[in-house]
Amino acid sequence: MPVNIIDKRFIQKTGSVEDRKRFIKRYKKHIKRAIRGAIAGESVKDFKFKDKKIKIKVEDMEDSLDIPSPQNNPDAGVYDYLHIGNEKYKKGNRILRPKGILGQGRQGSKDGGGKDEFEFTLTEKEFSDLFFEDLELPDMVKKRFTGDSYEIQRCGYSNTGGPSSLNVKQTILRAFMRRYALKKKMDKDEEKQLQEFLDKNKKKIHFLEDVDLRYNYRDRVDIPSTKAVMFLLMDVSGSMGEREKDIAKRFFLLMNMFLNRNYTTVDVVFVRHAEWAEECDEQTFFYGQESGGTVISAGLEKINEIINSRYNPELWNIYVAQASDGDNWGQDNNLVRDLLTKSLLPLTQYYSYIEIVREDESEGGEVYDLFKEISEGFKNLHARLITDYKDIFEAFRSLFKKDKSK
């Protein structure tokens, strides 16, 4: 018999969990549109997924945005009333339902007032689920039997085992099969002899014999292990102003949250560079104060060094996400090209590059042009421009949007 479990927990007196799920599903596109602006206007330290109030514009929407909930309305439905001494209505008359109680919808007002926004609070989980929906690390296909990942699986039946693993159905089935196989055509003398034997030994003959017993058999089965490493490479040179660094950090915070939420076997390696490069921890990566000149090849060489020492490309899916303002020492661009085309791109599954455009500019610089040129020969390289805070969400989604064709 199927069992249906209905979740009737209440959240903040706004209805049950199931009500909220239906509401979010119904207005998902409007909610997601409101979320796009949620990453702007907060400091880097405060940017995290928590319960958030979002506002949805209800203009051009035909139906109500209220969360469905039971209503006690005496004027709804069909009722039989006995009105003593009624002189106004006769039997068969239709009585119109009074207006202005329920279902009247939005209405304008003479002074221009009215309700044009709906405020809705998303829980931390609801917010992150909608924020990272349909995103993935592209082309995670390399799988190897490393022995690190396994699971215990059912592997048929065994003649031996403990009482807890006895398979009653298979045991009874084999008992019937054995008893049926013993039957054969007999003449009257044979039948008489068999009956006498059964009558004499009926206490010794059991319905189940040891040969009938079947036990569930389980064994350890190795499963392919999908390993991945994500390198986060950030330019912290002096050419990166506070605005550019803040945008880059927001992008990488999104990346780090996305990886922590969606993947349990992805290593995250933090690398920052100026004219020097170093691997660092998460705290130093986001809040360190060092600066210097700009040599992009230093960061690429550091990543290549780490790959060669710790991450065998035959066993690991390798990803790189790089953020820069597009400035670089001019003579370094040729070395950047060689490192990308000859070392990193042949080893990586996916390489994403974002360039933060300064407020007084509107297009990318030489480094962006270089990456776009290289991407024509390497389909695993993707470059995007970010001109303002509002572009972070769209850039992130465009770089890591799930390929629905697979």
Describe the structure.
- The protein is of the alpha/beta class.
- It folds into three domains: 11-66 and 116-131, no CATH class; 151-220, no CATH class; 227-400, von Willebrand factor, type A domain (Rossmann fold).
- Helix content is 32%, strand content 18%.
- It has eleven helices and ten strands.
- The protein is flat, with a radius of gyration of 35 Å.
- Mean pLDDT is 77; it is low at 101-114.
TL;DR?
This protein has eleven helices and ten strands. It has helices at 17-26, 28-35, 124-131, 168-182, 188-201, 242-262, 282-287, 296-310, 333-344, 366-375, 391-400; strands at 52-57, 117-122, 150-158, 215-222, 227-235, 266-273, 277-280, 316-324, 350-356, 381-386.
How would you sum up the major sheet? 6 strands, mixed
Any idea what the shape is?
flat
Distance between the termini: 36 Å
Work out the helicity level.
25-40%
CATH topology of the largest domain: Rossmann fold
CATH class category name of the largest domain:
Alpha Beta
CATH architecture of the largest domain: 3-Layer(aba) Sandwich
Stretches with pLDDT under 50, minimum 5 residues:
101-114
Quick one: CATH superfamily of the largest domain? von Willebrand factor, type A domain
Structural class: alpha/beta
Query: How would you describe the oligomerization state of the chains in this entry?
Result: single chain
Task: Give, in spatial order, the strands making up the sheet with the most strands.
Answer: 7-6-5-8-9-10
Number of strands: 10
Could you give the order of the helices and strands? HHEEHEHHEEHEEHHEHEHEH
Strand content: 15-25%
Tell me, rounded to a whole number, the average pLDDT. 77
